[in-house]
Amino acid sequence: MIAIVENYKRILKYIERYNIEFSESTCFPQLIAVSKTFQKDKIQLIIDEGQRIFGENKVQEALLKWSDLKKVNKDIELHLIGPLQSNKVKDALEVFDVIQTIDREKIVKKIKQHLELKKKKLQFFIQVNIGGEPQKNGLKISELSDFLDWCNKDMNFPINGLMCIPPLNEEPSYFFNVLKNLCKKYNLKEASMGMTGDFPKAIQYGATYLRIGSAIFGQRN
Ligand SMILES: *Cc1c(COP(=O)(O)O)cnc(C)c1O
Question: What is 88-106 written as a DSSP string?
Answer without folding.
Answer: GHHHHHHH-SEEEEE-SHH
